[in-house]
Amino acid sequence: MIHLTNVTKTFDRFQAVRGVNMAVQKGRIYGLLGSNGAGKTTLLKMMAGIIRPDHGTVLIDGEEVWENPEIKRRILFLPDHVYFFPQTTIEQMAAFYESVYPSFHRERFTRLQELFLLDPRKKIHQFSKGMQRQAAFWLAFSTMPDVLVMDEPLDGLDAVVRQKVKNIIIQEVAEREMTVVISSHNLREMEDLCDCIGILHEGEMLFEKELDAMKTDIHKIQVAFRNGIPKQFTEQLDIVYEEQRGSVLLLIVRGEKQEIVSYIKPFQPLIFDILPLTLEEIFIYEMGDVGYAIENIIV
Ligand SMILES: Nc1ncnc2c1ncn2[C@@H]1O[C@H](COP(=O)(O)OP(=O)(O)OP(=O)(O)O)[C@@H](O)[C@H]1O
């Protein structure tokens, strides 16, 4: 669905995005993580056709996004600072969206009022910041885009609204295969929402992986043996991290769970636990290899 190939963007000789390749399949939710200044906004704006890459291609369904009105009608970009025309109401903004996006769904707009509980006839600038963000979501979800690109959209929303918004995103993806790209500083926030995570660092894509595969491929193991650790025990294991705590050996091991269990059982351990890792733990171990400070993306 979305394909970025070798995308680069330079501002005044500063390379904000460098040779990024990225693919998002239809009906998936892609979480773009990275610290301040990593290049997330720049990348998302190129994806939405708002700024033009210096090099590389940004394609949606095989077509260049830049200056392509047909494609742009199918994409909705929710910026980190939401913008509305001065002195307008939500109702007036809805009429504008309706005139621009053929997919705008009037009935859905009316139905969503029950969720957002905002007065559509009130001037938007009179709402609080969080309420204005809610208004932007209300309009975005009423537009029913094929591709929803969002720049740190959950910042400034209270916990109840965050959950409502997440639920609508998940529902839209499940029901009509909307494709979502969402940027965030916060790994924990993305954990229950995204299918795939990419980490952007200093303009480059440092790491990209499917969450399910990530969770099933790595395990925390605690083992202890009656007469110490057998000599060849760790030889056949793909060990990411190893620590001895008294007589207990703690291992972080890559591999298929059943295969690991079948390998360890014949050594007849006295204690043997195999546990899943939290996403945060997986990142700490995986990113340790490339020297990325995970604290940057856990707020
Ligand atoms: N219009 C511009 N002119 C000059 N430099 C820019 C421009 N837009 C972005 N940059 C620079 O490009 C880099 C990446 O910025 P970008 O806004 O894409 O990062 P980000 O990952 O979204 O950061 P944050 O999480 O802080 O919002 C930064 O160093 C920024 O100063």
3D architecture notes:
The protein is of the alpha/beta class and 299 residues long. It folds into 2 domains: 2-213, P-loop containing nucleotide triphosphate hydrolases (Rossmann fold), CATH 3.40.50; 217-296, 2-Layer Sandwich (Alpha-Beta Plaits), CATH 3.30.70. It has helices at 40-47, 69-72, 90-100, 106-116, 129-143, 159-176, 187-191, 211-216, 257-264, 279-288, and strands at 2-11, 14-24, 29-33, 55-60, 63-64, 75-78, 147-151, 179-184, 196-201, 204-210, 218-224, 238-245, 248-254, 271-276. Strand 12 (238-245) and strand 13 form a beta hairpin. The relative contact order is 0.14. The mean pLDDT is 91. The structure holds adenosine-5'-triphosphate. GO terms for molecular function: ATP binding; ATP hydrolysis activity. Keywords: ATP-binding, Nucleotide-binding, Transport.
Question: Which helices and strands appear, and what pairs or packs with what?
Answer:
Layout: E1 2-11, E2 14-24, E3 29-33, H1 40-47, E4 55-60, E5 63-64, H2 69-72, E6 75-78, H3 90-100, H4 106-116, H5 129-143, E7 147-151, H6 159-176, E8 179-184, H7 187-191, E9 196-201, E10 204-210, H8 211-216, E11 218-224, E12 238-245, E13 248-254, H9 257-264, E14 271-276, H10 279-288
Parallel strand pairs: 3-8, 3-9, 6-7, 7-8
Antiparallel strand pairs: 1-2, 1-4, 4-5, 9-10, 11-13, 11-14, 12-13
Helix pairs in contact: 3-5, 4-5
Adenosine-5'-triphosphate binds next to strand 2 and helix 1.
